[in-house]
Amino acid sequence: MTKSPTVARYAAFADSPELGNPAGVVLDARALSDADMQSIAAEVGYSETAFVTSLVEPGATALSVRYFAPDAEVDFCGHATIATAAALGDVLGPGDYVLNTRVGPIHASARRENQRTIGAFRSAAVSSSPLSAEQLDALLRQLGWSKEDLHPEYPPAIGYGGNRHPVLVAQDPHRLADFDYDFDGLRALCRAEDWVTIQLIAPEGPGCWRSRNPFPWGGVVEDPATGSAAAAFAGYLRALGRATPGDRFTIIQGVEMGRRSRIEVEVLETAALIAGPATVMS
One GO molecular function term (predicted)? Predict the structure, then answer.
């Protein structure tokens, strides 16, 4: 790498640069090697940085994108996709884009609304599968949770929305306030099971959920907003029969980190539509 590329910085899922989940976006990564992208992501230090490896020019609608956490490449990243859509909208103007990722083509868009940019994407096909008793015991042990903390009407499972995310629904949102887990132990478990983040979530009222997402897999203690986990949760609710196509709900995340994020989710036939604002960070 002869010259450091420009890294645009956006706060995804928030109207303020002090809130939401920061993401880096490199719009011209064509000349970067894997090692270059990993080094840049580690230097930026956000939970993910997106790298557009196709030429960004007027009329471009299909672009290849890769995502790197500080420690490793991830197959997909929701909040960095929102940031990428906003960055493309700022350069090319509002519109629709197809982002070719490791989980397949992702349809994304950017639009202007009341002086702000709203990014959105249609997730990969969502699904839900059981969490085995052994996996649940190991996960609860690393988190310091017990089975009594879990909501009896929402069984533990593994949701998929571009990445695999175990879903643990707490009976009480106050359970999410206690967030002291074994980083190295949970990281080893997540790497062994290919779990990118853990969706710890609790109902907070009609159509509203409160969430926290440990992300030791990527070298990050906690993610302030996790778009792929939101999509996975839509698949989880649909598999339970608690959501049908056309249903919408909101996930509030990042509050305890001081980076409150608001993720808007619409359940689709086979996927989820994830949307939220993205704000330029200085």
Answer: isomerase activity
